[in-house]
């Protein structure tokens, strides 16, 4: 069977997006400047992003929702975006997230009620009829049953990844920025069952134990060192790490690529919510179109840059051609230096 496109699995939630002037201190109050309700979660964001970036690429999804207005919203979002959706409707409220964005800096804070997501199990995943090429699965740390041991596997994520690979799919796991110890506990057992891993600087540091201080001055050489270490820990053919100044990719052959990020004007940034999902979708858009690894990183940065213009997760994502035009208009940061500093740090 010829395979094409993606199936997303796992987190579909409703984001209640709220913009604040600033994040308040404890025991104080602040006004909500605006509020919207939109789809969220890795399964939703990647699926919608991909359909907007490259409408020719088929996308399906497997997820849970409740029999409520939030669940109806998620099902309508899938339908409106041409996503072949397989929603299991369960007797629980739909997973919802309070997504706060501070207008002073665009930073986000998420508080969530997992509800329906806590009922997701490996039994909900059936890959026997799918024609997709890649499973995009997430989010560990958000689903109570999936996060727990499942039969002989350390958690349900491992079980689903096993099932997908047995059915002939390649696999990618979307990771959430949670406490490092919990991230390692849930994700390390998954690495032997992954074909791709696309994470941020904090997440690669947590997984590999290599100290990486998130921020503008993170050393690209240390990112590369951690990406190579992650390859050793799993079965991935490729590891990609993104951080504010750019992204680094390394594959099993030893090939390395890097690309700087887009210089998005601060005045154009409405919020960072969903930018990571847009990066991943942009990257896999490039993979699907057979582009070079460096081009895939450019696609990823361009999609992420476009997403920053909206406070919700995918409202500003356009075709990949439009995203690239936007990125080229803003301009790119300086190329990354992958050479270790002279202090003896090894890459």
Largest sheet: 5 strands, parallel
Total DSSP helices: 10
CATH class, please?
Alpha Beta
Global structural class: alpha/beta
Q: Average pLDDT value?
A: 94
| Count of DSSP strands | 13
Please state the second-level CATH architecture. Answer: 3-Layer(aba) Sandwich
Shape descriptor: globular
How many separate structural domains? 1
Question: What is the CATH superfamily label?
Answer: Ribokinase
What percentage of amino acids are in beta strands? 15-25%
Elements, N to C (H/E):
EEEHEHEEEEHHEHEHHEEEHHH
Q: What is the CATH topology classification name?
A: UDP-N-acetylmuramoyl-L-alanine:D-glutamate ligase
| Helical content (DSSP H or I, runs of 4+) | 25-40%
List the uncertain runs: none
3D structure, described in words:
With 347 residues, the chain is α/β, with parallel strands linked by helices. Helix content is 31%, strand content 23%. It contains 10 helices and 13 strands. Helix 6 packs across helix 7. The chain starts with 5 loop residues before the first strand and ends in a 17-residue tail after the last helix. The mean pLDDT is 94.
Provide a brief overview of the structure.
With 347 residues, the protein is an alpha/beta fold.
Q: Which helices and strands appear, and what pairs or packs with what?
A:
Layout: E1 6-10, E2 13-20, E3 34-40, H1 42-53, E4 59-66, H2 69-80, E5 84-90, E6 96-102, E7 108-113, E8 134-138, H3 144-147, H4 156-166, E9 170-173, H5 180-187, E10 196-200, H6 201-208, H7 220-233, E11 238-243, E12 246-251, E13 256-260, H8 275-288, H9 293-307, H10 320-330
Parallel strand pairs: 1-4, 1-8, 2-6, 4-5, 8-9, 10-11
Antiparallel strand pairs: 2-3, 6-7, 11-12, 12-13
Helix pairs in contact: 1-8, 5-6, 6-7, 8-9, 9-10
């Amino acid at each position: 069977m010829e395979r094409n496109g993606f199936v997303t699995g796992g987190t579909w939630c409703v984001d209640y997006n709220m913009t604040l002037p600033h994040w308040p201190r404890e025991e104080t109050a602040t006004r909500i400047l605006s509020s919207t309700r939109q789809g969220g979660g890795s399964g939703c964001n990647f699926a919608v992003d991909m359909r907007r970036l490259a409408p020719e690429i088929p996308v399906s999804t497997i997820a849970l929702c409740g029999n409520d207005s939030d669940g109806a919203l998620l099902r309508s979002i899938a339908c409106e975006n041409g996503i072949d959706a397989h929603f299991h409707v369960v007797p629980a409220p739909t997973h919802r997230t309070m997504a706060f964005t501070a207008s002073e800096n665009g930073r986000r804070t998420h508080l969530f009620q997992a509800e329906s997501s806590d009922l997701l199990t490996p039994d909900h995943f059936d890959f026997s009829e799918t024609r997709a090429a890649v499973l995009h699965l997430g989010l560990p740390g958000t689903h109570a049953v999936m996060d727990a041991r499942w039969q002989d596997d350390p958690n349900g994520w491992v079980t689903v990844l096993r099932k997908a690979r047995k059915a002939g799919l390649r696999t990618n796991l979307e990771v959430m920025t949670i406490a490092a110890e919990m991230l390692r506990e849930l994700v390390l057992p998954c690495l032997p069952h992954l074909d791709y891993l696309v994470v941020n600087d904090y997440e690669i540091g947590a997984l590999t134990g290599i100290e990486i201080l998130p921020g503008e001055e993170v050393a690209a050489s240390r990112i590369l060192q951690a990406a190579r270490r992650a390859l050793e820990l799993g079965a991935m053919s490729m590891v990609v790490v993104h951080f504010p100044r750019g992204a680094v990719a390394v594959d099993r052959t030893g090939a390395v690529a890097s690309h700087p990020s887009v210089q998005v004007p601060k005045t154009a940034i409405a919020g960072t919510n969903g930018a990571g999902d847009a990066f991943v979708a942009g990257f896999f858009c490039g993979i699907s179109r057979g582009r070079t690894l460096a081009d895939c990183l450019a696609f990823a940065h361009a999609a992420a840059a476009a997403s920053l213009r909206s406070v919700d997760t995918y409202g500003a994502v356009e075709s990949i051609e439009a995203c690239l035009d936007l990125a080229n208009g803003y301009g790119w940061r300086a190329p990354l230096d992958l050479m270790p500093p002279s202090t003896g740090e090894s890459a």
